[in-house]
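The instructor's notes for this session suggest beginning with a concrete chain rather than abstract definitions. Hand out the sequence below and ask the class to guess, before any prediction is shown, which regions might be ordered.
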Amino acid sequence: MRKFGITLLTICLFISVASAQRKLLDKIVAVVGNSIILRSDIELDYANYLANNGQPNPDIKCQIAVNLVSQKLLAAQAVIDSIEVKEDEIDNEVDRRWRGMIQRAGGEDKVEAFLGRSGIQWKDEIRPDVKELLVAERMRSKITEKINTTPQDVEKFFKGISKDSIPTINKEVEVGEIEIDPKLNKDEKAYYKQKAQDLLDRVKKGEDFATLATAYSQDPGSAPLGGDLGFSDRNGVVKEYAANAFKLKVGEYSPVFETEYGFHFLQVIDRRGEQVHTRHILIMPKVTDESVARAKLKADTVYNTVLHVLKGADVFSTAASIYSDNKETKYSGGMMLNQDNVQVRTTLIPTDRLDPQVALVIDTMKIGEMSKPQLVMDNAGKKTYKIFYLKTVVDAHKANMAQDFPRIKEAANQAKIARTMSEWFEKKKKESYIKIDPEYQSCPQLKGWATPVTSTQVNNL
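After discussion, reveal the predicted structure:
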């Protein structure tokens, strides 16, 4: 962890040095209409690429360059089409990036020290770039919003793939689950609620909120930030948190309240329209052996008195909606979603992407079978009991329209979007003035982007 933190801060230092040298060592590497792209723009994006675990590769800079040129064209068209983004959207994206840097580096003071500037200064510097990016994304969405991929389009797309290029789909399964989580009773919760109350009392007596949050809060995302959650609307937090946050005035503290995560109290720092800026301290109750035993008893009861007696997919689906504690699956028949393909929302999951604990259980099951309750532990050590239902097994096969229509449709839709954007850029390149510095003219991605120099312009050089 320490090594990772040092690496990240080294990258932050590189970003800082590159930004500080912008005025002294920069040069223009591209001109797009009235906008310019600086060498430091590319270097900064490359540093961010490395910070996100990208492998060092100078060719990536070529891709960054073409992305920035594309972004400038989209942003310029957005101005013409009166496409804008709200100030709140820009603020939220800037805050999200800043919070991510702090979380990875292990503290705001460390990031500021290596950047050589305060968080406010950094946010002011990056804000124009973030605004342009968001505007460009909004413009891209407008260009592609009317794209509709029909079954005929999908069939044509699939027929256009050569037989040698048709991919092999790995073995996939559809798996349902009923999750029974250990729950503390009122007496077991009392200790943790009092612990949160004691911290609230200390804050009210004058102790520093951020210091206590860093030391005691069990929210891994906000504790290093002094409990700061930034701005959020009512949909950005759980309902109990929103209910407390949105009824307080700036500076006020909430009482201790409970959510699915544990016991919290919060302070409102600022308000901005329909958004509120808060910080909080979270105390998460620990599961007891007794609560695990109660969860096992409930899971055994559901299995023995409902599933084992009645059986069938409809019974499992109904039981999941009644008994399961998994909010993501209980109202979809208990079926697990493929997290690698959320756009399609398919329940077919490649077996090599299953949780090893799940894969081990269903490996010996037959289609239509339900497992006995299994004790499962997640990466954070949380224990829960799950009953699994093996609905479907699809063996490895060559992609085909009958079995893989949703997947092929998504690929066809993405190809249609890519073609639409390519055609748009081809048209805009002819209408816009684009100049590429010789340093980047060798990039294959930028071939054909620069505005041709006429003989008259050459003679005037």
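Then share the key points. DSSP finds 17 helices and 13 strands in the chain. Confidence is low (pLDDT under 50) at residues 1-24, 457-461.
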